[in-house]
Amino acid sequence: MSVIAAPSALDAARAQIVGLDTPLPRRDGAPGPAINLDNAATTPPLRQVQATVERFLGVYSSVHRGAGLKSQAASAAYEEARTVVGRFVGARPDQHQVIFTRNTTEALNILAHRLVLAPGQVIISTELEHHSNDLPWRGVAPVVHVQATAEGALDEAHYAALLHQYAGRVRLVAVTGASNVTGYVPPIHRLATLAHAHGAELVVDAAQLAPHRPINLGDLADPAHLDYVALSGHKLYAPYGAGALIGRADTFALGAPLLAGGGSVRRVTPRIVDWADGPARDEAGTPNAVGAIALAAACLALEALGLETIAAHEAALTAYTLDQLARVPGLWLYGDPDPAKAETRLGVIPFCLDGYDPHLVAAILSYEAGIAVRSGSFCAQPYVRRLLKLEHAGCEQGQQGLVRASFGLYTTEAEVAQMVSVLHALAAGDYDGLYERNATNGGFQPLGWNEAPQTLFQLGGVPALAQG
Predict the structure, then answer these.
(1) Domains of the chain
(2) Which of 40, 250, 272, 318 can bridge 342 by disulfide, Cβ–Cβ 3.0-4.6 Å?
(3) Exactly one of 299, 352, 379, 395 is catalytic; which is it?
């Protein structure tokens, strides 16, 4: 089984990825190219984004603070970036507000702080969530969780039952737009319609969804609209430290911000604080203008490529990968393993291998073949525990996590094939490296390995400070 040829637009996009030509040391001593199959954690930068940032640095100055022409230009660019990011998720200027944040986690914490809750109200989250779309809500209201099915999907019957059970008391439904563990994509607009019918609002953690699928907040008059979405630049090929919270302007028009300080106020006296209108209220301090410009540039680049084109490429690659992994003896797939349904999910594939600690599998892929995957619980411990409990797999007894391969728009069939080849070798015991657990980080490394990570990059060539 082979995927269809990648569209020429994506072939060109691969050439725009920074870092693919970075040689990595291998256990056998011969450096080789980096293969990144850990895109669900962080994507590499696009050269278009890098180039836009470099152009912006020519006018970089204080945003919303100065009369100088550079400051005016930087302020205008910052606000243009806000418009671009809002458009990327279908925001309506008369209904929605775009707040720049550091990342999705900060965005969700801001929303948790800004929601007005009445006594007795609850928040519905799900067992599928990244900790960032669960823990912030626990600090403001009782949280009840929608169960996951055996394959890791959202149990919609249980969701409906919870809305009925807590009728009139649900303030917010918090759901992932796409799972960072299994790639499952919930029907967010269907969930929103049901939430609104019960008087609740809905927030989507779109960190995983945004780089792969179109998002449309929708008009507030539409029962299927999304009330809020949160996303991160570092998962959108713009790792410059910015994210965004986009949502209902009426929510942010009242109340005090999470962070208070310069820029968030119109007037301050010894007794009065008059908060600023608009997103400035929630953007205290000097903003990360570079990050905002980078995030907007990435949105423009993805729009130009076409998210439908990206989704089609990813679906074909996911189908190929699921088919090939199913052929590895002793390998267990989690989530929906059906290649025929690849277009309904993202290219995020968790698995384990009989008899192997998942962290050891990840280490061998890295040191033997330069392939980066993730191992562990992916900041979604309840979800992974449920998957491990429900799946009757014969992997490492007592294991606490899984291995996860995840794709970007630039990932190729050849890269996946290299990973599959290593996994076949592991299943057959056909590798000669000895590995030991690293006492510092709990991972594994080859016995006698002496290549320090600092050899790949040193700031100004200055060695890292000695610890002690």
Answers:
(1) 8-45+306-448 (3.90.1150.10), 50-304 (3.40.640.10)
(2) 318
(3) 379
